[in-house]
Write a structure and sequence with these properties.
By secondary structure, the chain is mainly alpha-helical. It contains five helices and no strands. 17% of the residues are buried.
Length: 156
């Protein structure tokens, strides 16, 4: 049993390392081009939530949560406020761009760089923002299914 726990911890550390690499790789072009990036925290939250919930959705039986019924129940309840928080964050970014345009953020860049970084930020924020919002109810449904399976069938 100790070997299994060690492997689960190593797998978890590996996934967190992958998550950090994705965060750094996606943020690097933005930091390279921008003086101020007010949505950096939201951007990182979107990336971490999407990667973490997606991997737990598909690899739940290989995580420490597999047999933790109480923790899964608490997580299901926490998914309700989380989805609204994520929607609010993405809405805040979209509203800022629609009302103030890109000029406060990218006005200092040359025209060629400005267009490319704006497209990159737009695509990256929408991909990870929408992905994280979608992953929340999917993860909650997966946890509910896992609770039912554990209780009725003894599986995850």
């Amino acid at each position: 049993m100790a070997k299994r726990q060690t492997l689960l911890v190593l797998l978890e550390l590996l996934w967190w390392t992958v998550t950090v690499i994705v965060v750094v790789a996606s943020q690097y072009p933005i930091h390279k081009a921008m003086h101020v990036w007010p949505y950096e925290v939201w951007n990182i939250v979107f990336i971490v939530v999407l990667i973490t919930l997606a991997r737990y959705t598909f690899l739940l039986k290989h995580t420490f949560l597999a047999r933790q019924q109480v923790i899964k129940t608490v997580l299901i309840l926490l998914m309700f406020p989380l989805i609204f928080i994520l929607i609010d964050g993405l809405n805040d970014f979209l509203t800022f761009i629609e009302e103030k345009t890109w000029d406060p953020l990218t006005g200092h860049l040359p025209a060629a760089d400005k267009k490319s970084i704006e497209q990159y930020i737009w695509a990256e924020m929408l991909f990870f923002g929408a992905g994280s919002i979608i992953s929340v109810p999917v993860f909650a449904a997966r946890l509910l299914l896992s609770i039912w399976r554990t209780h009725n069938r003894g599986t995850v």
